[in-house]
Amino acid sequence: MASKTPTVGIHSSKEAIYLSLQEGYDFVGVRLSTDALKQRVESLEPFESVQEFFDSEIAYHPEEYVNKVVGLTSEWIELDSNDALIAQRSEEILMKEVSFASYCGLASVLCNGPKYADNITQYARSCSTILNSSYNITLVLQFPIEYGQEDLFESWKMWNIVRTSCKYNPRLQVALELPPSCSPPIELVNRWYAEPIGMISLSCMAFVPNPTGYPVLSRKLRAIFSLYLRLNPKVFLRDSNVPDKIGESPDYSIYMKHLFDTQPPAPLVEEFAGGYKDYLQIPLQPLSHNLENITYEIFERDPVKYAQYEQAIFAALNDRDANSVTRIAVVGAGRGPLVDCALRAAISSARTVDMIALEKNPNAFAMLLLRNRQDWAGKVTLVFGDMREWNPDYKIDILVSELLGSMADNELSPECLDGVQRVLNPITGISIPSSYASYITPIMSPKLWSEVRNMNDASAFARQYVVLMNSVDFLAPNDEFRFQPLWSFHHPNDETKLFSKNQHNRRNAAVRFQATNPGVLHGFAGYFEATLYKNISLSTLPTTMEEKSPDMFSWFPIYIPIEKPMYVPENSQLQLHLWRMTDGARVWFEWSANTYLVLRNGSHIHLSSTDIHNASGRGFSYLMN
User: Fold this and answer.
1) I want to staple 594 with a disulfide (CB 3.0 to 4.6 A). Which of 72, 225, 375, 575 is the partner?
2) DSSP H helical ranges for 211-300
3) Pairwise CA distance, residues 28 & 64, whole Å
């Protein structure tokens, strides 16, 4: 999965396309029609219509660089005009310009955004009509990041109505306009980040001179702009023909390319897995499927995780009698990375160990045989089989596993460790990890939701997905309540003796979140924290990851979708119900969501609810055999 890079373009004319490309621009925006078309439309009688363009009305014809051209529709078009005739004429002309752009071979057209909030549905209907036509072209709609101070989210609300009315059409994108004086709050900046931004629109008048007189962006505008560059958008410079702009045309492309090249380095996780951003993966079925070699290889690339494991084993060995022999078993050993950790910990702690590695995957077991001969000098006892059926005639002092899923328990770590804990020394036996907890938060992500919908699978919204989240906005405020705990598991677990059919591993939770700003609920993001041994931990939780396991990338968050997006008004509450169910042969998750409006007196009005997703595990379940 190759990653894209940002590109920069400028408003130009048909005659200047080649010159603009020579000046370093990656694309150009060119008007499709001239002012002569407007003059003719204004002279038409109500019963007349434009059947075809006259030669004087056409500003662009297909040419050599058509793949580097974005069509600019007429600025005078008002799809949301209060005058019914103007709105009708505007839709007719826009349809013809889109038709002409499609004929020319253009991939996208840039259109003016709506002007009147009261008529936004009329604007949305016209966009829907064009998108549902036979023209396979992308509509890029220009929206300012904010519309003033009365309602900072007004522009986003208008876009949301258009996007929803057009059924999340993948050929509908935003050209986000960053005005020179914009100073939006971070909540609004993050909100737009989650939207399908195909273009960032900047006026050349937004640039200020640096000490040498060259055009640059102000520090505040550059900070906002730099965040959106992570989405790899097209950057479109308008007003290039304004006489009092700073510098010459090539200066802008040079500066923008400089900005592209000098962005801070991406987080380590993106360096290793950047191609997986917003790419949905179905969680593993570790008990019913055998993993491929490439899967193990990806797991083993994470140095942070194994450093934490090695530190935990070292600490556990140090707490034991220096003269004792410690029996360590790595269950689900894969290709042996945890065996390496344990052997290194034994050397650094100066402890004697009896090392055992168990694996049920016959292909991975073949690698363990090779490694035992080549790397471990035959000192590791290898056991082939399912850990739940292992019955050695000795007890284990330290049981080590890496069975956690993206939400800790979702890949059946509790079931696996319950099945093998009988081999642990009942008095001094240690499990690494010793416990783990799951966390959840509501998210808005048109991208992830659309990816699920586009699977065209009846069970798509009954599954959870592992995903490196990028185009996501958190709906809960950035405080201590943004990520809330669901449940936890501890090992060894004495409850296994009290229940049958795995009933002790059932869980349920109901958590509430405050939503200060308006948004759309597309589902929930799941994370975990795990205690390996004493104070040595792993975490994917954004609030504690840097403290407990910085730069760890073995686990992406989990996405729990809802089938029908729910609008969330400002100052409302979201409630999630989540159940971990089991019948002894399977484990599955069910979930539902509710929204409530919170009144000034503290009472709640119910707004909407979802269905119970994945009821009885009919859509997706984890098999225990």
Assistant:
1) 575
2) 219-229, 249-261, 268-273, 293-299
3) 13
d(CA 620, CA 603): 37
57, 97, 146, 402: which is the annotated catalytic residue? 402
Q: Which of 32, 4, 26, 63 is nearest to 236 (CA)?
A: 26
pLDDT level of residue 1 (50, 70, 90 thresholds): very low
Q: Is 305 annotated as a binding residue?
A: yes
CA distance 158 to 147: 10
Terminal Cα-to-Cα distance of the chain (whole angstroms): 33
How far apart are the C-alpha atoms of 371 and 353, rounded to whole Å? 18
Amino acid code (one letter) for 450: S
Q: Are strands 604-609 and 586-598 parallel, antiparallel or unpaired?
A: antiparallel
SS (H, E, C) 49-88: CCCCCCHHHECCCCCCCHHHEEEECCCCCCCCCCCHHHHH
Rounded Cα–Cα distance for residues 531 and 403 (Å)? 13
Q: Is the pTM of this model over 0.85?
A: yes
Whether residue 271 lies in the annotated active site: no
* Residue 245 marked in a binding site: no
Task: Determine the pLDDT at residue 243.
Answer: 67
Residue 411 annotated to the active site: yes
Q: Is 306 annotated in some ligand binding site?
A: yes
Select which of 91, 97, 146, 411 is catalytic: 411
The mean of the pLDDT values for the chain is 93
148: pLDDT strictly greater than 80? no
The answer to the question of whether 570 is labelled as a binding residue is: no
| Helix (H) or strand (E) segment spanning residue 563 | strand 558-568
The pLDDT score that the predictor gives to residue 283 is 85
Other Cβ atoms less than 10 A from the Cβ of 457: the count is 12
Is 296 one of the annotated binding-site residues?
yes
Residue 540 CB burial class (10 angstroms; 0-12, 13-18, ≥19): buried
Taking the CA atoms of residue 467, residue 170, residue 229 and residue 145 in that order, the dihedral angle to the nearest 10 degrees is -120
Q: 382 is written with which tokens? A: 């290898």
| Radius of gyration of the chain measured on its C-alpha atoms | 29
| Separation of alpha carbons 157 and 141, rounded Å | 14
Between CA 216 and CA 259 the distance in angstroms is 10
What is d(CA 25, CA 472) in angstroms, rounded to the nearest whole number? 30
